[in-house]
Specification:
By secondary structure, the chain is of the alpha/beta class. It contains 13 helices and 15 strands. It has two domains: 171 residues, NAD(P)-binding Rossmann-like Domain (Rossmann fold), CATH 3.40.50.720; 188 residues, Dihydrodipicolinate Reductase, domain 2, CATH 3.30.360.10. Strand 1, helix 2 and strand 2 form a beta-alpha-beta unit.
Length: 432
C-alpha cells in the first residue's frame, strides 16, 4: 500500500528497522495465514495499526481489528500499565495462536507520541476518554496516520471543527466510531425516510439520556500503575477517583463521561449514535438545526431542535429513533425496525431512488477506504456535525434558554455567552 507521499510500506519498514519505540521497536510482520479473514494479503499491502487507549472499549476495538482482513496490530498505548499489558498480551496471543508459533511483536508505550513516531504504523485507532480525542486526532493527522476515532468525536464544537480541518489538510482517511451507520436496520430506516415512504418528514423523537451530572467525587490515592497526570492531559486538574478510571478487574465502563471535564453525559454518548442517525435521515451530514430550546415547563416539555426545513426533533422516550411523517412512521434501533404501514419494512429501494452508503462492517469499511483513499461511511465531517447536535443540546441545558444556531458559520446568533461555550481552556502544556 502506497502512502500519500509515494513511500511504500516496504520503504517504511526499511526506515523503521532500527528504531526502538516502546517495548518492541523492530517491526515484526506475521505470516499471511495469521491475519485471519484475508490470509493472502501481501506484506507490502497490509495496513498496520496502532491503538491509543486500551480500556474497555479500546479492548473491544482491538479484538475486532485483530480479526479484520489485511490488517496487523503493531503497537498499543495506554497510561494505565495494567490495561496496556493486557492489550499487548491479547495481540501477541492472537498472532501466536493463528501462526502456531511464539509471538512477542506488539509494541507497548505509555505515551501516544511514541506510537505516532513509528513510521511502520499506517493508521491508528483512538479509544481514549473524550477529552483526549482532539489532541490525538490532530497529532495523528499531522504525522500522516489514517484514523479511526471512537464516538463522540470531540469534547467541544470548536474541537470537532479543528479535527476536520486537520484531517482535510493532511489528506487522511477518517472513520468516526458511530457504528450504527453500518447496521442495515438504520440504513433502511433512513432510506425509507429520505425517499418519502412516510410522506413529508415532520417530527423526530430520539431516545437518549441527558447531560453530565458533575457529582463530586472524594479524593483517593493514585494507584502505582496509573499515570494520573497524563490521564487528565488537557483537562483541568482534579484529584483521582477510581470511578473515573476503574481497576482493570472491574470490567465496567468508567463514569468519566458524566463529568463535563471529560465527557458530555449520555447526550454525547448515545447521542453520537442516535442523533447521528437522525441527521443521516434528514440529509444533514454537512449541516444541522437552527434553533435549540431546553425544557421550560410550559410550551416545551422536552429538549427541542428546530431545522430550517420545518422538521422538529426532540429528546424524549423512543426505542432508538422515531421518524414521523404525513403518511407513516419509521422507528429504528439496534436489531429493530418498526414501520407504519407495517409493509414498509419489506420495501426494496428502487434503483432510481436514494441509496445511502452501504457498509456492513464499520471496521472493514474503514480499512477498505484506506486502500481506496476514499471517505468511509462515517467520515469526520459527519462525526463533527452529529456531535455538534449533542453539544448544542448540552449548551441549551446549561444556559436554560432558547438558542439560535447558524449551521453554516457554526456560531450562535447574537449570543456571546453561548459562543464562549463552543471551546474550552486546555491545561498547560497541552494544546490542539
Amino acid at each position: 500500500m502506497a502512502s500519500t507521499s509515494g513511500v511504500t510500506r516496504r520503504q517504511f519498514l526499511a526506515k523503521a528497522a532500527g528504531t526502538a519505540v516502546g517495548v518492541v521497536g523492530i517491526p515484526h510482520l506475521v505470516s499471511s495465514s495469521a491475519l485471519g479473514q484475508d490470509g493472502n494479503t501481501a506484506a507490502s499491502e497490509r495496513i498496520t495499526l496502532g491503538f491509543i487507549g486500551c480500556g474497555k472499549q479500546g479492548t473491544y476495538l482491538l479484538q475486532s481489528f485483530l480479526n479484520a482482513r489485511g490488517a496487523q496490530v503493531l503497537a498499543v498505548c495506554d497510561v494505565d500499565k495494567l490495561k496496556l499489558e493486557r492489550a499487548k498480551r491479547i495481540s501477541d496471543e492472537h498472532y501466536a495462536r493463528r501462526s502456531g508459533a511464539s509471538y512477542q511483536g506488539c509494541g507497548a508505550a505509555g505515551e501516544f507520541r511514541e506510537l505516532l513516531a513509528r513510521a511502520d504504523i499506517d493508521a491508528v485507532v483512538i479509544a481514549t476518554p473524550d477529552h483526549w480525542h482532539a489532541i490525538g486526532v490532530i497529532e495523528a493527522a499531522r504525522v500522516g496516520k489514517d484514523i479511526y476515532c471512537e464516538k463522540p468525536l470531540s469534547q467541544t464544537i470548536a474541537e470537532a471543527r479543528a479535527m476536520v480541518n486537520a484531517v482535510r489538510r493532511y489528506n487522511r482517511v477518517f472513520q468516526t466510531g458511530s457504528m450504527q451507520r453500518s447496521d442495515w436496520h438504520f440504513r433502511l430506516g433512513c432510506e425509507l425516510v429520505r425517499n418519502g415512504y412516510i410522506g413529508d418528514l415532520q417530527h423526530i423523537t430520539v431516545g437518549v439520556g441527558g447531560p453530565p451530572a458533575d457529582q463530586p467525587l472524594p479524593a483517593e490515592t493514585v494507584p502505582d500503575y496509573l499515570d494520573w497526570d497524563r490521564w487528565l492531559g488537557p483537562a483541568l486538574w482534579r484529584t483521582y477517583n477510581s470511578d473515573l478510571s476503574p481497576h482493570i478487574s472491574q470490567d465496567v465502563f468508567p463514569n468519566w463521561r458524566y463529568h463535563s471535564e471529560f465527557g458530555g453525559g449520555a447526550m454525547t454518548d448515545w447521542g453520537a449514535h442516535h442523533f447521528d442517525i437522525a441527521q443521516w435521515a434528514m440529509g444533514m451530514d454537512e449541516s444541522g438545526p437552527v434553533e435549540i430550546i431546553p425544557p421550560d415547563g410550559k410550551d416545551y416539555r422536552v429538549l427541542t431542535y428546530k431545522y430550517a426545513s420545518g422538521v422538529t426533533m426532540v429528546r424524549d422516550n423512543a426505542n432508538g429513533v422515531l421518524f414521523s411523517g404525513t403518511k407513516g412512521i419509521v422507528e429504528t434501533n439496534r436489531g429493530h425496525l418498526r414501520t407504519s404501514p407495517e409493509e414498509l419494512k419489506d420495501v426494496q429501494i428502487k434503483p432510481d431512488e436514494i441509496h445511502l452508503y452501504e457498509s456492513n462492517n464499520h471496521y472493514v469499511d474503514w480499512l477498505d477506504a484506506i486502500r481506496k483513499r476514499a471517505k468511509p461511511v462515517c467520515d469526520i465531517e459527519t462525526g463533527c456535525r452529529s456531535v455538534t447536535v449533542c453539544h448544542l443540546g448540552n449548551i441549551a441545558y446549561k444556559l436554560q434558554r432558547p438558542l439560535r444556531w447558524d449551521p453554516e458559520k457554526e456560531v450562535f446568533v447574537g449570543d456571546d455567552e453561548a459562543n464562549r461555550l463552543l471551546s474550552r481552556s486546555y491545561r498547560s502544556p497541552w494544546q490542539a
